[in-house]
Specification:
Layout lengths: L2 E12 L2 E12 L3 E5 L6 H8 L7 E6 L2 E2 L5 H11 E4 L11 H11 L4 H14 L15 H13 L5 E5 L7 H18 L2 E5 L3 H4 L4 E6 L2 E2 L9
Parallel strand pairs: 3-8, 3-9, 6-7, 7-8
Antiparallel strand pairs: 1-2, 1-4, 4-5, 9-10
Helix pairs in contact: 3-4, 3-5, 5-6
Bound molecules: adenosine-5'-diphosphate (ADP) (2 copies).
One adenosine-5'-diphosphate binds next to loops.
């Protein structure tokens, strides 16, 4: 298929650190891509630039024909809320909110009324095998259950792209495999493009393609996707 996410010439400094040194990436709609590389190589910085969480010093990012690097901060924040989903390591759920309210949150932030948002939240929780857990607090869930709640929250707004940063980082390997199986099955069924940052080769094995980053540069011939 055609390019869905395009990054061209991304440069990013954090203070004196040159975190991205001219990164080009092309990702197709529905692709599952793993961004891999050593700690400190720039993976998270790349993910944050692709997702419009931070702005590169130079370069452009386009997602589904929207050049997000050209948007104002308000427009970018709206784009993130309505078009993108995020999953991070365990611990990202709001501890005072029940599972259903954690999942409903992105919809409510985008303006959906709570009652309607909860219907969607329940449907996603059921789909991820969490029926009956709707009212539990994060502290009342196992690590795997909490991460499934985080997946539901990432998917609830039917994002065009789901960004996951070490989504199984704190889970034991069996639980991690189950979460990855569920995640990849759901994104394949919904046609969601998935970008996963990981340094775990087992997590990357669920992807269609790996992009390797070292010292702020792409080191694999993955720029144009040989698929
Ligand atoms: P990775 O995700 O591969 O571990 P990062 O993108 O987090 O790499 O970091 C790349 C480099 O930029 C590292 O040297 C890191 O210490 C530095 N860095 C990242 N974020 C910041 C920040 N907010 N302030 C200062 N340095 C940062
Ligand atoms: P990861 O585990 O994904 O590589 P990091 O530990 O690199 O995450 O970064 C976690 C957060 O801290 C990020 O928001 C990143 O921007 C920030 N960060 C990373 N390195 C530094 C640093 N040297 N100084 C300040 N903030 C940093």
């Amino acid at each position: 298929g055609p390019a869905f996410i395009t990054a061209r010439g991304l440069e990013k400094h954090h203070g004196q650190t040159h975190a991205l040194r001219g990164v080009d990436v092309t990702i197709r709609q529905g692709e599952i891509v793993a961004v891999m590389g050593p700690s400190g190589s720039g993976k998270s910085t790349l993910l944050h630039c692709l997702a419009g969480v931070i702005t590169p010093d130079t370069g452009e990012v386009t997602i589904d024909e929207t050049q997000i690097s050209a948007l104002t901060e308000d427009q970018r924040s709206r784009f993130r809320l309505t078009r993108l989903g995020f999953v991070f390591q365990f611990g990202q759920l709001l501890p005072e909110l029940s599972a259903e309210d954690n999942v409903a949150l992105p919809l409510m932030l985008a303006g959906t009324r709570r009652a309607r948002a909860l219907v969607q939240a329940h449907s996603w929780l059921a789909r991820l095998g969490l029926e009956g857990m709707e009212r539990r607090l994060p502290s009342e869930l196992s690590g795997g259950q909490a991460q499934r709640v985080a997946l539901a929250r990432g998917l609830v707004n039917a994002p065009a792209v789901l960004f996951a940063d070490e989504p199984t980082g704190s889970l034991d390997s069996l639980t991690a495999e189950r979460v990855m199986e569920t995640l990849t099955e759901v994104v394949r069924n919904t046609g969601t493009t998935l970008v996963i940052v990981t340094h775990d080769a087992r997590v990357a094995s669920y992807s269609d393609r790996e992009i390797f980053i070292r010292d702020g540069r792409v080191t694999s011939p993955a720029l144009e996707g040989a698929m």
